[in-house]
């Protein structure tokens, strides 16, 4: 019999957030001529959400397997790529940032260095050409000076 | 015939060269995306929504493009089911059961042709059903006031909790989380800042499309990395291009039965395509199994394929006529409509009939196109299965980023998308469904507006919520659905060894 901690922790986190959510809503000021006001609906949502979270703490389901090695390292590396990539788009320009982003993801997914660079070289400029001149979505081409 | 006149107008919208080209493009892209293992209709539509949105297409055109992608994905999903035994998406799961054995017996062309034909049959019959049934529902719903709509939204959450999730408590909690996330931003009535922490980017709340791309596409990538098995090498080789007619002919009855069952389960709010294909397969097995099901019986391919496509059409009935989506993908289509400033519901049929009927006509066009595209081109599509994930996944991620970036040109939204991706990953690991989160996010604002409107009519007396017989009827239906959900959940908990089939079939 495992402790089924995953569901209990998730339930506890959501319960705490629901409580906080209710409490913050309590501070919204009523406006004149509006019998309901901005706090009623959030508080109405908070109560059942908290109740279901509490149910999760009391009657949790079996735990999933969280860490699949070596998949975890790929997940961490991907997440890092996903978080760094947006920071690069505007300073480095879209084609360069996407070259790095697509190349990194491809390498994480098991491509060779050469394959990853090749994919980045195709995807980076390729998507820019497809979306900016062809489809008319403005994307930053060059680094901001 | 009023309906036929409307439909003629609809075809006039759908058959303009631009919209026809969009339909063709959508069908092709949809089939490709759907055929890729792991990427189903929700992902396909979610990734392409930002593009349709930012290309500045007319509402009718955008809607046509995305429903074609939707149906294309449904068509494509069966290819990986049959060839790889990996369902492209959840509703295609039942197609694996008899489709893959057929392929192993060298009958892949027959299996693919049968599934294409039954998808077509299911979709066309469901579209006819949508045409006949939606206006009736509209005539009924036109009398709904704010109190009835509030009740209807509650029903939608109860329904989606009842049927989709394995654990109704988790599903309903997810809906609560979605509703809570939906209140972030400026309150439209009073202008109060709610949960914005003074961050300027949050004043408008979370863009539902950004959340959807994160919850579905990004979390899919994170989940995929966990196992990282390379698809594409195990595909069955097709050596004949054309199917034998004799195998196809005997599946006609199964297609019709599957379509009927699928449509009904699609119309039920919250049930969606997975239930449609599941019920169609299970009932067809009861009806005509002589010990051949599961070993490559063509009727075991025809019934679930017809069922899942008919359910997809059926799900459009509550989405268009009430504004309450019946499945994950229709929730995504609803997000698109709301982004285009179109509020689905009974009024849509009066104020913007070109959108509704253009869409219905587009469904016919899409399915004919798909059938024409699929029968001869299936060899091309099966080859797409061989594209390795290390090429595919980076492209999916980058297209998602471009799409989201193009909505607001802000880096902030990209982080919001990644945040929702992580949330989606955690929820899916915990078996908390993410569709209710999307629904909460989408319907929350309208639900609150209707609640507040109802109470300002009554001067603050909550009794108005239960005043009309229609509202009381909807609450009763909600209670029944919740009761059924709890009953199933308790049964499943008591007998974990019991077959899933029996839990639903009996």
* Average pLDDT reading of chain A: 88
Give the total of domains of chain B: 1
Shape, per Cα inertia axes of chain A: flat
Low-confidence runs of at least 5 consecutive residues of chain A: none
Biggest interface: chains and residue counts? A-B, 69 and 62 residues
What portion of the residues of chain B fall into strands of 2 or more residues?
Answer: under 5%
Radius of gyration of chain A: 24 Å
Low-confidence stretches of chain B: 496-506
Q: Determine the structural class of chain B based on helices, strands and strand pairing.
A: mainly alpha
The oligomeric state is heterodimer
Describe this structure in words.
The complex is a heterodimer of chains A (145) and B (506). Chain A is an all-alpha fold and 145 residues long. Chain A contains five helices and no strands. In chain A, helix 1 runs antiparallel to helix 2, helix 3 (71-92) packs antiparallel against helix 4 (94-108) and helix 4 (94-108) packs antiparallel against helix 5 (113-134). The longest helix of chain A has 22 residues, at 5-26. Chain A starts with a helix and ends in an 11-residue tail after the last helix. Chain B is an all-alpha fold and 506 residues long. Chain B has one domain. Helices cover 75% and strands 1% of the residues of chain B. Chain B has helices at residues 2-14, 17-35, 41-54, 59-84, 93-104, 108-141, 146-163, 168-182, 208-227, 245-249, 252-267, 272-288, 298-322, 328-339, 346-351, 353-384, 389-408, 411-429, 435-457, 469-494, 500-505; strands at 185-186, 193-194. A two-stranded antiparallel ribbon of chain B has the order 1-2. In chain B, a hairpin with a 6-residue loop joins strand 1 and strand 2. Chain B is globular, with a radius of gyration of 22 Å. At the A-B interface, helix 1, helix 2, helix 3, helix 4 and helix 5 of A face helix 8, helix 9, helix 17, helix 18 and helix 19 of B.
């Amino acid at each position: 019999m495992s402790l089924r901690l995953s569901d209990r922790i998730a339930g506890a986190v959501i319960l705490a957030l629901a409580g906080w959510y209710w409490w913050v809503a309590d501070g919204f000021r009523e406006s004149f001529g509006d019998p309901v006001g901005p706090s009623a609906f959030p508080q109405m949502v908070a109560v059942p959400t908290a109740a279901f979270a509490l149910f999760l703490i009391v009657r949790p389901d079996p735990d999933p397997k969280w860490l699949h090695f070596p998949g975890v390292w790929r997940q961490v590396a991907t997440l890092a790529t996903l978080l760094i990539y947006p920071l690069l788009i505007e300073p480095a320009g879209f084609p360069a940032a996407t070259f790095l982003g697509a190349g990194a993801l491809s390498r994480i997914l098991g491509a060779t260095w050469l394959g990853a660079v090749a994919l980045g070289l195709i995807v980076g400029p390729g998507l820019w050409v497809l979306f900016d001149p062809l489809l008319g979505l403005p994307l930053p081409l060059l680094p901001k000076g | 015939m009023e309906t036929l006149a409307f439909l003629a107008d609809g075809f006039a919208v759908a058959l303009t060269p631009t919209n026809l080209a969009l339909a063709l493009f959508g069908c092709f892209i949809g089939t490709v995306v759907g055929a890729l293992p792991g990427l189903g209709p929700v992902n396909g539509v979610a990734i392409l929504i930002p593009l349709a949105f930012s290309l500045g297409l007319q509402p009718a055109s955008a809607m046509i493009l995305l429903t074609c992608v939707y149906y294309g994905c449904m068509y494509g999903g069966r290819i990986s089911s049959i060839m790889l035994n990996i369902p492209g998406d959840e509703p295609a799961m039942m197609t694996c059961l008899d489709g893959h054995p057929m392929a192993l017996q060298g009958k892949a062309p027959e299996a693919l042709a049968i599934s294409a034909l039954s998808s077509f049959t299911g979709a066309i019959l469901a579209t006819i059903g949508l045409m006949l049934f939606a206006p009736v529902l509209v005539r009924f719903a036109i009398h709904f006031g704010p109190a009835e709509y509030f009740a209807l939204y509650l029903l939608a959450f109860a329904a989606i909790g009842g049927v989709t999730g394995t654990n109704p408590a988790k599903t309903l909690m997810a809906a609560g989380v979605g509703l809570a996330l939906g209140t972030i931003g400026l309150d439209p009535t009073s202008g109060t800042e709610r949960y914005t922490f003074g961050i300027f980017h949050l004043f408008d709340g979370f863009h539902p499309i950004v959340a959807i791309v994160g919850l579905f596409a990004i979390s899919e990538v994170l989940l995929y990395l966990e196992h990282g098995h390379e698809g594409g090498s195990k595909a069955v080789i097709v050596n004949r291009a054309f199917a034998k007619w004799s195998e196809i002919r005997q599946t006609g009855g199964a297609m019709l039965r599957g379509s009927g069952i699928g449509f009904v389960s699609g119309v039920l709010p919250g049930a969606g395509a997975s239930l449609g294909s599941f019920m169609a397969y299970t009932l067809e097995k009861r009806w005509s199994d002589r010990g051949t099901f599961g070993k490559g019986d063509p009727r075991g391919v025809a019934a679930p394929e017809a069922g899942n496509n008919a359910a997809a059409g059926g799900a459009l009935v509550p989405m268009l006529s009430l504004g309450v989506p019946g499945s994950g993908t229709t929730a995504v289509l609803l997000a698109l409509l709301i982004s285009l400033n179109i509020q689905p519901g009974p009024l849509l049929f009066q104020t913007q009939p070109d959108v509704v009927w253009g869409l219905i006509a587009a469904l016919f066009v899409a399915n004919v196109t798909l059938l024409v595209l699929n029968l001869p081109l299936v060899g091309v599509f099966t080859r797409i299965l061989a594209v390795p994930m290390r090429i595919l996944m980076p492209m999916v991620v980058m297209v998602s980023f471009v799409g989201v970036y193009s909505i607001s040109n802000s880096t902030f939204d990209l982080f919001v998308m990644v945040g929702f991706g992580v949330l989606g990953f955690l929820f899916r690991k915990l078996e908390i469904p993410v569709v209710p989160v999307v629904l909460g996010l989408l319907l929350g604002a309208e639900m609150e507006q209707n609640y507040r409107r109802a109470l300002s009519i009554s001067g603050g007396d909550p009794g108005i919520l239960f005043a009309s017989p229609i509202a009381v009827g909807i609450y009763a239906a909600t209670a029944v659905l919740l009761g059924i959900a709890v009953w199933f959940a308790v049964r499943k908990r008591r007998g974990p060894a019991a077959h899933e089939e029996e839990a639903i079939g009996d």
